[in-house]
Amino acid sequence: MSHQRSLEVRETCLDPDDTSIAHSLQLQADIHAQTGKLMTAEMLYRQSLDILEASLGKTHPDVGRALYMLAMFYQKQGKLVILLCAVYPWLYVMQWHGSL
After folding, report:
1. Which percentage of the chain shows pLDDT scores above 70?
2. DSSP assignment of 29-63, as one string?
């Protein structure tokens, strides 16, 4: 089953704020980023982050990982100002959990 189809099934069967939907969105974002569809990738990364924050809270490690993925997406594009906006919350989450 393709990642897109898997996402469609999850969105049909699960609550819109289910974390498995967020993880599927991250996979889709990765695919779009690798194929040069950057606007779509950014939208999917942000949608995933929104779901994780709503479901798990802003200090959950999965939110930290989503912020890190978004930051690396921006870094690869050379968007340094936007990168910093994503990195600072990630640093807070990692520090909160003693990962730094």
Report:
1. 77
2. HHHHHHTT-HHHHHHHHHHHHHHHHHHH-TTSHHH
